[in-house]
Structures are given as C-alpha cells and as structure tokens.
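DM from R.C. (forwarded with permission)

"hey, sorry to bug you on a friday — could you get me a structure for this? deadline for the figure draft is monday and I only need the backbone to look sensible"
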Amino acid sequence: MAIYIRRITWIDANGASRTTQVFGNATVATVQVALQNGSNADYIIESEAQVFANASPTPVSATYATVDDFAELWLQTSANTILTLTVPAPKSSMFLADQETVDPAGAFVTGLMAVATGLVCDLAGNTVTNFVGGIRRFTGRLT
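My reply, with the result:
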C-alpha cells in the first residue's frame, strides 16, 4: 500500500510561517483544502510528490491571525491510534464559545471529516474514522 505525505507550509498576515504534514493512502489534497477552510493563514508551499508554490498567498488578519496560534485536532484511526492535525491561524468560528475548544459539530469539523475519513492515515495505513476533539494552542504557551 502506498502512503502519501503532503507537507504544507503556511504563512500568516504577519509573515510568520509553520509547516504541517498529513499522511494518506491516496492524495490528500482535499484534506489540505479542508484545513485551509478553517485557517486564516494561507499556504506558500505544498508538496506531495512535487513542490507547488502559491505565488500570491492571501492570509487574513483576524482574531487568530498568526501561525503562532493554532488548532490541534485529534483524529482516531481504525486501529484506535490518534493522529494530530494542525490548523495554523485558525478561524474563530471553529471554536465553541470558550474560544479554546474546537466545536465537534461545527461546519469546519464536519467538512474536514467528510474528506479525511477513510483517506488520512497513520504510517501503518490505518485510516481515520472519528474526530476525537481539538483545542486552540499558542506556540510558547502551555495550555
């Protein structure tokens, strides 16, 4: 079974960047789109077999506009392993009223899981089956 890795380097409105990666049993381009739908950052470089550059990224200055702010999402696989996906500069709409907890019933999680289920996998090829939870974090801060 082939395992694909997609590396995404994001840029925020302040020019800071963060790189994330996603593994899948096929191309995970649709997962990148779903992650981008939940982020105020934009990608500047992505790779999955070859490198593609975004010549004119358009990050948004908003509540969590820097890539130092990020949402950490936990997804469960068919083998009960937990994968972590990161959304840099997350849109505030993905959180519950506490602005810390990712809304499991919100449009962002629903959209992400629609494309990630059965596609995103761990290194052993076990695919994602379930959203476990998520929280907002900030680089350099214990949460």
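R.C.: lifesaver. Residues 71 and 87 are 5 Å apart (CA to CA).
me: no worries. Strands lie at 4-11, 17-24, 42-47, 51-53, 69-77, 82-88, 128-138.
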